[in-house]
Amino acid sequence: MRPILMKGHERPLTFLKYNRDGDLLFSCAKDHTPTVWFADNGERLGTYRGHNGAVWTCDVSRDSMRLITGSADQTVKLWNVQKGTQLYTFNFGSPARSVEFAIGDKLAVITTDPFMELTSAIHVKRIAGDSTEQTEESVLVIKGPQGRINRAVWGPLNRTIISAGEDAVIRIWDSETGKLLKESDKESGHKKTITSLTKAADGSHFLSGSLDKSAKLWDTRTLTLIKTYSTERPVNAVAMSPLLDHVVLGGGQDASAVTTTDHRAGKFEAKFYDKILQEEIGGVKGHFGPINALAFNPDGKRYGANKNSLLIYNLLMELDVVVCCVSNEPCRWKVEIYVLSCMFAATEFLFCSGLLIILTICVLQLNSFSSGGEDGYVRLHHFDPDYFNIKI
Amino acid sequence: MAAEVMLMNEIEATAAQMGIDMNIDFSSIQLPPGENCGIISDDDDVYHDDQLEFDSGFGNVIVVDNLPVVPREKFEKLEGVIRKIYSQIGVIKEDGLWMPVDPETKKTLGYCFIEYNTPQEAELAKEKTHGYKLDRAHIFAVNMFDDFDKYMKVPDEWAPPEIKPYTPGENLQKWLADEKARDQFVIRAGTDTEVLWNDARQSKTEPVYKRTYWTESFVQWSPMGTYLATVHRQGAAVWGGANTFNRLMRYAHPQVKLIDFSPGEKFLVTYSSHEPSNPRDANVRVVINVFDVRTGKMMRDFKGSADEFAVGGAGGVAGNSWPVFRWGGGKEDKYFAKLGKNMISVYETETFSLIDKKSLKVENVVDFSWSPTDPIIALFVPELGGGNQPARVSLVQMPGKEELRQKNLFSISDCKMYWQSNGDYLAVKADRYTKTKKSTYTGFELFRIKERDIPIEVLELDNKNDKIIAFAWEPKGHRFAVIHGDNPRPDVSFYSMRSTHNLGRVAKLTTLKGKQANALFWSPGGRFIVLAGLKGFNGQLEFFNVDELETMATAEHFMATDVEWDPTGRYVATSVTSVHEMENGFNIWSFNGKLLYRILKDHFFQFLWRPRPPSFLTPEKEEEIARNLKKYSKKYEAEDQDVSMLLSEQDREKRRMLKEEWEKWVSEWRRAQEEEKLERQKLRDGEASDEEEEYEAKEVEVEEVLDVSEEVLSFEE
């Protein structure tokens, strides 16, 4: 399907985030206004005005009520998602690079850049249920890693914090005491700045992307290196499909080094890899600059359920060739059956000697991923049915 | 500017307050030599280079003997005389002249040491002043300081040389006996140089040998693939061996820049140019050495100014086209020749001297080339006297210097010669002025060397005004390809020297219109050609079968800069070298344009297939094999099948392993997830919904017998 080009930002994109339901997409850019979009049609829902600098990152609470954004204006702001109003502002002495709500949304981890005489730091703030009771003070401040910390996320049960940044080392900290628990191996780990880090839906493993032209998959609890995906360009952004065993890497030549006339030279494609086999399976072109942000619609996860397959199977018995589709509108399930029409479904039949074997039934619609680039555009890609039939 | 001035004023004011004298003459501050206050100079690399050279010995020091012995009073006068003589030749280092004095008599000892800036100057000084007559009694004897050691070591009594037991050398051709009949290639990326097997069956490479900093500038295979030559500051070296690469021989040549093997790889020509150390001396000095590859012995050296070695009299280093010496006479390495002013100097390798002790005099000759197989030189003399004397191309047989054939050409602007690889044909591309002399058009003069009287045929393109972009003979064949027309979509035409009706006439086979190509690469076996659009065309490739006149495949290797066929004509390598920043690496294709594999390497400099020596099979035998190819290929096809079976088996196995391993992780995660479920709920104030628990992906396989029918089939015997 044609991607939906979402024009709204005036400067390079920095971060993308879907809410849990997958109906909203939050985007951050170097212009000062984070924006929220409808995730299915790319319509702009609203903006959050108030920052006075590039917005590097955001996160949205589980109930999609509150948004937290980190900005180069040295503040981290809490917003009311629905109304777009500011609830609270944390002030720091240096730009905030990454934010994430903990499980339960009662804590947030924030990283700040080295600035003037300040070194980089990881802050843990308590987020009050009622924003009028919100306080400035940090529960914990961790200092130590050299250079910028590009990303810090919560480990399982909020017990650990995983950080990665310019020194190319992934560290796991105790979120209670701030003690360093584990460090990635210099040999097997990244060689250059780690630009992005994203967790799997269940938080059991995470993917890190680095300027050393590779992405690596790690176990969250033991920090064991599981997979390495090598590519041919620096990786700025990584994402994992919640549905299939696919990972997506985005990046490209550094924006300042783009001098070639042909956009292919810059490698601005989003590249799909098989998560298990570590092999490249495809690419999605489109951007005119490096890809800075990638996100998968988490909603796709729900369609993975095959409990409907029996129902569908019964229908198949009556019709010669039936292509089925389960479409979803938020909060409601609807089963639609299309006779002899291929719209969004992907089913595979095999007739052999009178036996009908249904190999796989993937019932999907509206599963999508989005990418944000240096060119200031967000591209929203809905998957074609073929995507779910990739065999390698 | 104003701000800066202000600043300076402030500084001065402050300085005055503090009683500091700001009027320091910075040029008067001299650091002790060798002291850099811990600041590394930007030029350090340069210095370092020089230092290395000096440290390697006293190559820049000469010893002048047979000087007059003078008392102390005359010391300075003598020193002045010597300095005057020797500073004419080169720059003597500060304190570079040392004349020792007898501590008792205070008289000089009759010799002195002079240290120059460079070994080249020292050598020149030795050459020029050895035997210099200061007066009747004092004839200078000049030696290199380094040589003294050598002379001192000569034993007084002659000892019979020790006879070393014969040790059989390694089989340098062993790579040809590879069981899988694979070919090797060398790549250079970053600081690593690597020799690899092209294992096309398995779509990968297999390492042979790898070395970091193997060479300082480039590597080069010898023409028959026996040696790999590396280039270093001190000289060149060749490597080879049965299973790995050992250094076989070194060839000392300081600051060697270029090397060239003779076609039969008996000799190695090395080249270096040296900037004059004396700025008044505008001539760049050039040193060319010819070595015997196997013994390492220097057979001949040529020294002179760059002008003497500049081809076509263009002058300067830029006008110097390599190789200066071109080898002729086929694989026997009998002759080599150099273009000079109004002459071609042809040397023969038995004595390393000019044939008949004199050069071949040809007024105004500007270009020449050897037949690849025979000792025949084709030379070109441009038009003279404003067209009164026509340009000509002539063929000269060596060593007799007889003119075999000559052709006068009129109103020629430029001319290029292309030999067919067997020396059967010579194509001369002649650019002619149109009548108005405002533009040029191109025609070809085709010489049939092997036929009686060497008939010449003139070929003009259908559209005379087409520009010629590329020309290439089919190796060992009788066809050639031409890219002509205008960018961006020129045409490609194929011609055959044998038309169907008349063996003695050239005929056009076909013209392909509007191809994105600017370079032609024939398969070494002929028949197939790659039409490549390099540089401006982004690496378009078309694999074309000239026998059938059909395109086998079109492909693209984005940004490709180089295309090279393997020596057997089975595979093609296309590479993107570091002229581009991105995409560096190479692709290996089959002859019919199927991409086999692709390897990316940053800072990719070189890709070279290891050449193979010519086959020992007679043409008849080769033809017989070609005729019965089916019979021979059966065995290999079976092998191919086995390998691909094995590969897919291995692949399956690998995937199964990976999947299993992954499953293990997933179940581990699921277990941990389950364990932490309650705690997670607590963190979420009791909210239970973890979607990953609510829905579980299950693969359901349903199998049902729809219909069972029985049919009676009759069997036929």
UniProtKB/TrEMBL annotation, chain A:
One of its GO terms (cellular component) is eukaryotic 48S preinitiation complex. One of its GO terms (molecular function) is RNA binding. It is found in: Cytoplasm. Pfam families: EIF3I. The keyword Nucleotide-binding does not apply. PANTHER family: EUKARYOTIC TRANSLATION INITIATION FACTOR 3 SUBUNIT I. This is Eukaryotic translation initiation factor 3 subunit I. It comes from Gossypium lobatum.
UniProtKB/TrEMBL annotation, chain B:
Residues 688-701 have a biased composition (Acidic residues). Residues 60-147 form the RRM domain. Pfam families: eIF2A, RRM_1. GO terms for molecular function: RNA binding; translation initiation factor activity; translation initiation factor binding. Residues 674-687 have a biased composition (Basic and acidic residues). GO terms for cellular component: eukaryotic 43S preinitiation complex; eukaryotic 48S preinitiation complex; eukaryotic translation initiation factor 3 complex. Signal peptide: none annotated. GO terms for biological process: formation of cytoplasmic translation initiation complex. The keyword Protein biosynthesis applies. Keywords: Cytoplasm, Initiation factor, Protein biosynthesis, RNA-binding. Residues 674-701 are annotated as: Disordered. It is found in: Cytoplasm. SMART domains: RRM. Belongs to the eIF-3 subunit B family. RNA-binding component of the eukaryotic translation initiation factor 3 (eIF-3) complex, which is involved in protein synthesis of a specialized repertoire of mRNAs and, together with other initiation factors, stimulates binding of mRNA and methionyl-tRNAi to the 40S ribosome. The eIF-3 complex specifically targets and initiates translation of a subset of mRNAs involved in cell proliferation. Component of the eukaryotic translation initiation factor 3 (eIF-3) complex. This is Eukaryotic translation initiation factor 3 subunit B.
